[in-house]
Amino acid sequence: MNRVRTKICGVTSPADARAAAAAGADAVGLVFAERSTRRVTTECAAEIAAALPPFVSRVALFMDNDAREIADVLDAVPLDFLQFHGAEPASFCNGFDRPYIKAVPMGEPGVRLTDWAERYPRASAFLLDANRVGEAGGQGQAFDWRIAVEAIDRPIVIAGGLDPDNVGAAIARFSPYAVDVSSGVESAPGRKCSERMRAFVNAATEMGKA
Ligand SMILES: O=C(O)c1ccccc1NCC(=O)[C@H](O)[C@H](O)COP(=O)(O)O
């Protein structure tokens, strides 16, 4: 099995970003979704981006934000990837000259990953999350892992309710390219815990080696 990448999402301070990088995370997610408890301002996001060392990807997460706001964020913050969690069509996601990840709401019945791959031909990866359409992610809830996930031609990222104790089982079940966590490595809402991040990355990396 190849090394499984890790993304720590919902980072809200430069200190937590540095701790995520020190824990070995491959990517850090900055939430710009409205009404999220983890939402960062553009200024804060720029400070977080500046705090990260080279080769740790900076991912900005949006959920039906308007195009002007996304363009303003991109002008101010050096970002490697966008992540779209709402009902954004492919034409919208394609409009920012950045590679993007599309979140797939696995809380919906009858999700067919091949349909998503067809609808978003330029998505770099698909992030399978626990929410239903229109619901925010980052709730610490897993989707039903018994759902059949079809093979597609792009990487998949597993998210939703992961933590240091269950991430190995998620990797064994889905053989994903990467795993994504937010609530499961927090000490309080929006505050990441260094020990839990380290335990999460270690568990994912160990499992990926098996
Ligand atoms: O984290 C949020 O507040 C959020 C708000 C709106 C849309 C998406 C959001 N987070 C999405 C993520 O990428 C989370 O990392 C993912 O849903 C997993 O979260 P968790 O179950 O808490 O580990």
Overall pLDDT metric: 95
Q: Biggest sheet: strands, sense, closure?
A: 8 strands, parallel, barrel
3D shape: globular
Q: Can you count the beta strands?
A: 10
User: Ions, cofactors, ligands: which are bound?
Assistant: the ligand O=C(O)c1ccccc1NCC(=O)[C@H](O)[C@H](O)COP(=O)(O)O
Distance between the termini: 7 Å
Could you name the CATH topology? TIM Barrel
- Main-sheet strand order equals 1-2-3-4-5-6-7-8
CATH class category name: Alpha Beta
Tell me the series of helices and strands, N- to C-terminal. Answer: EHEHEHEHEHEEHEEEH
Detailed description of the structure:
This protein has 210 residues and is of the alpha/beta class. The chain has a single domain (5-209), classed as TIM Barrel, CATH 3.20.20. It is 31% helix and 20% strand. It contains seven helices and ten strands. Strands 1-2-3-4-5-6-7-8 form an eight-stranded parallel β-barrel, surrounded by four helices. It has a two-stranded antiparallel sheet with strand order 9-10. Helix 1 (14-23) packs parallel to helix 7 (194-209) and helix 6 packs parallel to helix 7 (194-209). The mean pLDDT is 95. The structure holds the ligand O=C(O)c1ccccc1NCC(=O)[C@H](O)[C@H](O)COP(=O)(O)O. The site of the ligand O=C(O)c1ccccc1NCC(=O)[C@H](O)[C@H](O)COP(=O)(O)O has 26 residues, from strand 2 and strand 8. Pfam families: PRAI. It catalyses: N-(5-phospho-beta-D-ribosyl)anthranilate = 1-(2-carboxyphenylamino)-1-deoxy-D-ribulose 5-phosphate. Keywords: Amino-acid biosynthesis, Aromatic amino acid biosynthesis, Isomerase, Tryptophan biosynthesis. GO terms for molecular function: phosphoribosylanthranilate isomerase activity.
